[in-house]
Specification:
By secondary structure, the chain is of the alpha+beta class. The protein is built from 20 helices and 18 strands. Strands 14-13-15-16-17-18 form a six-stranded mixed β-sheet, with helices on both faces. The protein has a three-stranded antiparallel β-sheet with strand order 1-4-5, with no helix packed on it. It has a three-stranded antiparallel β-sheet with strand order 10-11-12. It starts with a strand and ends with a helix.
């Protein structure tokens, strides 16, 4: 069968901005992602293979001047002290001759298009080198088996004095492969992930990180590869990069592992587009624990998220003239200070000055999340972030602008069909269910804009999604408690829209003779937070509903309303809580029937401590 490649070639296309390269032609549109096969059958049937359904990687062809007899090109990550000659000698092996090394030097120079072997190299740079043709020809399963055996041997050596950790590491490898099969990851992707973890464990020395820290990172990478929903933002404003991290561990775990390993070994990361960011790889605050708590952030996630934010900040720096010199850093904090330790520092000032403590990701630049993802993986995707359509929303093709509930359903159904899950979704965290999931506004970033990860979709009816929320596992909506797309849509639209919808629901329930206390409480809170009611109005409505809930019969409806009262009371300032409690006592509610008993104790305790 002959292959006839038919594609319109547009002169304005630039290779390094494309999704991929096939030979000398550029693929930039979905409709271009098709190769036509002219079948020399009597009917001359034209068959086609749609590349829109598979990953397209940028080709790295040898230079026209290259004389290498090795057609395979690999990637070498530069380590401290490396030069072209040293890299060539390592590739040539112990038994090589000087002539072998000299030949490899010439090939490396030609492949990378350098002038000569004096080309400067920096730790973290990715250099194209001649690959092993025989190794590349091995079946995927064989490559995986070899990578697995190599990592297992390394893990058994590094954890030989801790049988429990060794057993857990091996179990996470098993779980990772099981999850990879479920999510249709290739054996090559698993092997590449194992190779990155192995690279982290075989590293020598104690700078920038000590061997024990590298072991902890290896454990965390394999655990997060086995279950990406364990990834969290901790007490930091990095929900945006935590969603990028979750999606990457789900789909491209080797790229996440490579980023963490690069930073852990070199204190910097060089993206696939050549951009370089410097990162302090040390662990700060809760990430210093080798095992992250449910609501904490692992050391591996700190490295990923700080690096990701800096790739985003680099994009923002390039928008000004002259380019900005902002850098995002994680600093240690004092326990109980309420300080997340995040700093954006302007290094163009002398001395450098702190300008903000937030990563600066808004609706206006949400597309940067896709761009960061692409910079790490080298794959450009469209619409992986979804958000409510508004005049201020980022107009780049990285964002899908939601215009209606039906549109949201259509987008989710198509994404599942195309294998694009997980997706990143921007929500208003003051709207349910995210308000309750946050502990009544206790989670970082829960009083306004927040992003989470949509992991699955079912069309229903009713249509539902599963959500991985980077606050903590308890805030997730997994298969055991999925979220209705209708509810998700309300949170995407935001507080003002939710108020209008709640007012309709509350009135309809009253008209039917079955007032919904739960929704009345939620409406009162949202109106207060949106500035539609005063503090006194809010307080009076809560007092009225406290009495109403107390008089309800003991059933599931009362329990649900009591929980809503709990989160509503938590949203009030301490002074308002005390006033509400005082008025509640005056209402002479029956003892044991009031949902305020424990709140009375808590508020009194808080008041006493405040006075002391």
């Amino acid at each position: 069968m002959e292959i006839d490649v038919k594609r319109e070639k547009r002169p304005e296309q630039v290779a390094d901005q494309s999704d991929g390269v096939l030979g000398r032609e550029v693929i930039t549109r979905h409709e271009d992602n098709r190769i036509f096969f002219a079948d020399k059958s009597p009917l001359n049937v034209v068959k086609s293979l749609d590349f829109g359904a598979v990953d397209i990687y940028q080709a790295h062809p040898l230079s026209n001047n290259a004389k290498s007899d090795k057609a395979v090109v690999d990637e070498y990550i530069v380590k401290p002290g490396d030069g072209v000659a040293r890299i060539a000698k390592q590739l040539a092996g112990k038994d090589s001759t000087p002539q072998d090394t000299e030949k490899l030097i010439k090939e490396i120079v030609q492949i990378n298009g350098w002038k000569d072997a004096s080309h400067p190299l920096h730790p973290g740079d990715r250099v194209k080198v001649p690959g092993d043709k025989a190794a590349d020809a091995k079946p995927e399963e064989q490559k995986l088996q070899e990578a697995k055996e190599k990592l297992t041997k390394q893990v058994e050596e590094r954890f030989k004095d801790d049988p429990a950790k060794l057993a857990q590491f091996k179990e996470n490898m098993r779980l990772f492969e099981e999850r990879a099969e479920r999510d249709k990851l290739s054996p090559t992707e698993i092997a590449k992930t194992y190779n990155e973890i192995d690279r982290l464990l075989v590293a020598k020395g104690d700078k920038p990180l000590k061997p024990e820290q590298r072991k902890d990172l290896a454990e965390q990478i394999i655990r997060q590869a086995a279950d990406p929903t364990t990834i969290g933002q901790g007490a930091h404003n990095t929900c945006s990069m935590a969603t990028v991290e979750t999606r990457m561990y789900t789909r491209n775990p080797s790229d996440a592992a490579r980023l963490i390993t690069d930073v852990a070994l070199t204190s910097q990361y060089v993206a696939t587009d050549g951009r370089r960011v410097r990162v302090n790889p040390g662990a700060h605050n809760e990430s210093r624990n080798s095992t992250a708590n449910d609501d904490g952030r692992s050391h591996a996630s700190e490295i990923f998220q700080v690096t990701g934010v800096n790739l985003h900040i680099d994009q923002e720096n390039r928008k000004t003239n002259p380019p900005g010199q902002l850098r995002y850093e994680q600093h240690p904090t004092k326990p109980g200070s309420g300080d997340s330790g995040e700093r954006i520092i302007d290094y163009s000032s002398k001395p450098p000055r702190v300008v903000q403590s937030d990563p600066r990701i808004y609706h206006e630049n949400l597309g940067n999340l896709r761009d960061v993802y692409s910079a790490i993986t080298g794959k450009r995707e469209e619409g992986i972030v979804i958000a409510n359509d508004s005049p201020k929303l980022d107009k780049s093709d990285g964002v899908t602008r939601i215009t209606s509930e039906q549109h949201l359903n259509d987008v989710l159904a198509q994404a599942k069909k195309d294998g694009k899950m997980p997706l990143i979704v921007a929500v208003d965290a003051s709207v349910e269910p995210f308000w309750t999931d946050s502990g009544g506004g206790a989670a970082v970033g829960s009083r306004g804009g927040h992003v989470a990860t949509i992991t699955d979709y079912t069309s229903g009816p009713p249509a539902k999604v599963t959500i991985d929320n980077q606050w903590r596992k308890g805030a997730d909506h997994d298969a055991a408690r999925p979220l209705a797309v209708h509810e998700l849509y309300q949170s995407i639209k935001g507080r003002s829209h939710a108020i209008v919808e709640l007012e309709k629901d509350v009135q309809a329930a009253k008209d039917a003779g079955h007032p919904d206390t739960y929704k009345q409480l939620d409406l009162a809170r949202l109106k207060f937070q949106d500035g539609e009611s005063t503090l006194d109005d809010f307080e009076q409505e809560v007092i009225r509903l406290i009495k109403e809930v107390a008089e309800m019969p003991d059933d599931d409806k009362k329990n649900r309303s009591t929980e809503k009262l709990r989160s509503t009371m938590d949203s009030l300032e301490l002074a308002v809580i005390m006033r509400a409690l005082e008025n509640g006592k005056k209402a002479r509610m029956p003892k044991g029937k009031s949902p305020l008993d424990e709140w009375t104790i808590r508020a009194s305790y808080s008041s006493t401590n405040k006075e002391n």
